[in-house]
Amino acid sequence: MSTNGTSATIKAKSAYHHGDLKEAMVQASYDLLSKNGADKFSLADVCRCAGVSTAAPYKHFRDRNEVLEIVVALAFDEMGRRSIEAVEKNGVGTLGGIIALGHAYVHFAVDEQHLFRLMFGQHPILKKAAGVEEDGRKCFSNVIEQVATYCERNDVSGDPRAIAIRLWTFVHGAASLLIDEDYAKVAPGLDVDALIADTTPHLLTTELPGSS
Q1: CB atoms closer than 10 angstroms to residue 107
Q2: Which has the least CB within 10 A, 9, 13, 70, 143?
Q3: Is 170:146 a contact under the CB 8 Å cutoff?
């Protein structure tokens, strides 16, 4: 399980100081969901991991769904953090930066498969939660911003949001096919990072090849 930056993310979003009960339970929940997924997730397990009584969660959370909402929001924060870091290392608003953004997305999906599935539809009710929706939009706004900068610098006409949606559709599909092992069935050994690097330049044009 990859936890790089997770604790810092939780601290940033929480109004509690390190060592407080709520933060401990949120961290335990994040770790359990990352490792085992939502199907096997229970507040009783959280209590055991955090070393608290089984009554403790109900003093801080509405119910199990609220805990899931908090963890999913944190997972979006972590994905966003990794994406921004990748872009900054490879060039803001550059082709290399946008390719790195796609790689970061796929790598997060591989590192955090249970969380990724939870973020994107395993529990549809979570998508309606205000915090989850806000963090999801924030992640996507990062993509739009990078595409808009790229288009301005390279005289690419068209709507940056539409181009960003095109990119997200491709990369999200690639991530899903990879973690569901569908690529392994039809294209064993496929280098998904190379696929993203080869395809991204074409998706950053105003028109798709053959669309005219």
Answers
A1: 18
A2: 13
A3: no
Distance CA 110, CA 97 (A): 20
Q: Which of 85, 66, 63, 64 is nearest to 74 (CA)?
A: 66
CB-neighbour burial class of residue 130 (10 A; exposed 0-12, middle 13-18, buried 19+): exposed
What structural domains and CATH numbers belong to the chain?
Answer: 6-203 (1.10.357.10)
Q: What is the pTM of this model?
A: 0.84
CB 183 within 8 A of CB 177: yes
Residue in the block written with tokens 């790598």: 107
Secondary structure E strands in 39-98: none
Biggest alpha carbon–alpha carbon distance for the chain: 64
